[in-house]
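Module 6 notes. Inverse folding takes a fixed backbone as the condition and produces residue identities as the prediction. Think of it as a translation problem where the source language is geometry and the target language is the twenty amino acids. Below is one complete input and output pair. Work through it position by position during the lab.
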């Protein structure tokens, strides 16, 4: 089978994995990699149709992710495909069934083996490439907003990095929950795309100041502030948008795509001091009562598997009912993995970047 091997740590966007000088790339396409055997009576082997690229996959090959597998390894997490073989005790699936799932490693290959308890049936109305894009991006946003923040229709949601994979998922889930959704992105194309999703207000960082733009919108709607901040970006943008938060607001720390980890002083979550000469003593105490959530979605499989499974099942039902749409920005073949990682690295994607098998890599854009 074909498999993408990470042989050493480095930038997977640097050069082609099967180019004229393969030693220049940390990743290489293995054309005759062994097909994995069923490793238990309840194991299922899936022929992968498509697999998703997430920023975490890029960081893992760079060696900058919290989980550092021994070299060499096959990267990859969420995927979809058809059942190729089943163990003697498998009861939930049969050969030919359409399934999706995620793994800690191994989806950048023609075949992957997982236990039947980790697989989800894909509804008939859902394309397999789209299903492969769902588990990590939409799963992360769904657990964060629905299970951690308990987002309601009376609240204001602010999504940073809103045109990326988890961002597009977050704004759609916010709309399903009935919240007022504010999105932050950069560039006219991304702004227009987010508006097409029904976002209530979009801030274009290329020509707008985020605080001023959001405050003007909130005032026009007679809203006091932001109740939930969804932050996969980090850096200076986190500190800036914290100025917009309501009393009792929740901050969802998803990741640090900016490359900069922000510092959130503990006292700010309780009380903030702001200077105002018109006030007695020149000091005003603003009570905040904020909650900061750190969300590492993958750990739910170990600590709260039922939450994770219920979340993905609900998301698949939402896809089937047309409540959410999975937007694929780019599709590449395995031999073009460097271009796929470049799209992630350079913020070119609007929605998801995918690797697909069966010659689907010739389709450069699905938007």
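Target side of the pair, the amino acids:
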């Amino acid at each position: 089978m074909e498999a993408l091997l990470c042989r050493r740590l480095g930038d997977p966007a640097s050069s082609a994995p099967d180019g004229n000088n393969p030693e220049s790339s940390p990743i290489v396409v293995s054309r005759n990699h062994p097909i994995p055997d069923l490793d238990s009576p309840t194991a299922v082997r899936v022929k992968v149709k498509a697999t998703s690229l997430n920023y975490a996959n890029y960081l893992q090959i760079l060696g900058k992710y919290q989980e550092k597998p021994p070299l060499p390894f096959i990267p990859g997490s969420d995927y979809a495909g058809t059942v190729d073989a089943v163990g003697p005790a498998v009861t939930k699936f049969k050969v030919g069934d359409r399934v999706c799932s995620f793994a800690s490693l191994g989806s950048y290959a023609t075949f992957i083996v997982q236990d039947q308890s980790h697989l989800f049936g894909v509804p008939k109305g859902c394309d397999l490439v789209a299903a492969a894009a769902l588990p990590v991006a939409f799963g992360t946003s769904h657990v964060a907003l629905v299970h951690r923040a308990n987002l309601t229709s009376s609240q204001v949601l602010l999504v940073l990095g809103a045109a990326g994979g988890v961002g597009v998922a977050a704004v759609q889930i916010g709309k399903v929950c009935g919240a007022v959704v504010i999105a932050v992105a950069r560039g006219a194309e991304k702004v227009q795309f987010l508006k097409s999703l029904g976002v209530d207000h979009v801030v274009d960082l290329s020509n707008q100041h985020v605080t001023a733009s959001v405050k003007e919108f909130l005032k026009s709607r007679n809203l006091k502030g932001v109740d939930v901040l969804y932050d996969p970006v980090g850096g200076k943008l986190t500190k800036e948008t914290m100025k917009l938060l309501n009393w009792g607001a929740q901050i969802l720390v998803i990741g640090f795509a900016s490359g900069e980890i922000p510092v959130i002083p503990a006292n700010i979550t309780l009380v903030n001091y702001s200077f105002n000469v018109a006030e007695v003593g020149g000091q005003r105490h603003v009570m905040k009562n904020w909650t900061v959530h750190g969300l590492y979605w993958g750990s739910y499989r170990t600590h709260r598997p039922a939450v994770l499974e219920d979340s993905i099942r609900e998301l698949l039902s939402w896809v089937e009912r047309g409540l959410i749409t999975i937007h694929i920005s780019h599709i590449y073949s395995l031999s073009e993995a460097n271009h796929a990682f470049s799209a992630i690295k350079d913020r070119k994607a609007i929605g998801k970047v995918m690797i697909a098998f069966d010659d689907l890599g010739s389709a450069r854009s699905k938007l």
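Reference fact for the lab report: Residues 273-285, 360-367 have pLDDT under 50 and may be disordered.
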